[in-house]
Design goal:
Length: 256
């Protein structure tokens, strides 16, 4: 889900306010994404033999290139049209936030910013959309963690994976389960093995340290939990496509 992304690259195209009753529309050939907040709604979205109901205070993400039918007895909403460059989905997504007032204010603020079009309004609107995504990500992750059987273990990984003495066995014990069962549950929740997840976190961190120019490569290796520089170098090149010694701003974003 887009609400799971911890960082999005986007370009805002438009921000609109709609207030409609008893309408049926067919949306086809849309080459942009949309994020909406429904102030008042009794709406059904139909696509690919699926139906999603949107009611008051619901947030919806509509990816580009998805054709759908909108049937609305009432549809009062603010919608942001934008292009996303590092995310694509084939599913329309809905979310009901816990603090709907917070999102209402943010969507109203971005609408006002867009309509006024003051100097630097594109920057201001982008900041506001980033805030909306940040709040959605934070709320989604909180819900996900509370529902997770391995919440304590994941928290341990986040706080300790850069230590040289880190072990998955210790992480699993935080949730009072075996390492084998932990690996299974982790893959189910994150769609990646815990080992690969940790490697990705370490290499992302290593890349950021290298770019600061403040540390030697040996120091970076140690700070990221690798006592063996050769092992670190192999894993870095596998994910980044280039060795640590050749990595710089000229290279593309991490592959991990």
């Amino acid at each position: 889900m887009i609400f799971e992304k911890d960082f999005l690259v986007f370009q805002i195209l438009d921000v609109l306010y709609l207030d409609q009753k008893n309408t049926k529309t067919y949306n086809t050939n849309r080459n942009f994404d949309a994020l909406s907040f429904r102030l008042e709604a009794d709406t059904v979205i139909e696509y690919n033999h699926k139906k999603i109901n949107f009611s008051n205070h619901s947030i919806g993400f509509f990816p580009a290139d998805i054709n759908y039918t909108r049937v609305a007895h009432r549809d009062k909403l603010i919608v942001v049209h934008f292009k996303t460059f590092n995310y694509h989905s084939n599913e329309i997504q809905s979310f009901y936030p816990k603090d709907c007032e917070k999102y209402r204010l943010l969507f109203e603020e971005i609408l006002e910013c867009w309509q006024k079009k003051d100097t630097s309004y594109l920057y201001e609107a982008s900041i506001l959309l980033n805030r909306i995504f940040a709040e959605l990500h934070r709320e989604h992750e909180t819900i996900h963690r509370k529902q997770s059987k391995i919440e304590a273990s994941v928290q341990y990984i986040e706080e300790n994976c850069y230590r040289k003495d880190f072990s998955l066995q210790t992480a699993a014990k935080k949730s009072f389960i075996s390492e084998t069962y932990f690996r299974k549950l982790f893959r189910q929740e994150f769609s990646v093995s815990p080992k690969q997840y940790i490697i990705q976190k370490r290499i992302r961190y290593a890349a950021s340290l290298i770019l600061t120019g403040y540390y030697s490569l040996e120091e970076v290796s140690n700070l990221c939990g690798y006592p063996d520089y050769k092992h670190f170098s192999v894993e870095f090149k596998k994910l980044m496509g280039v060795s640590p010694s050749r990595y710089s701003y000229h290279y593309e974003e991490p592959l991990c």
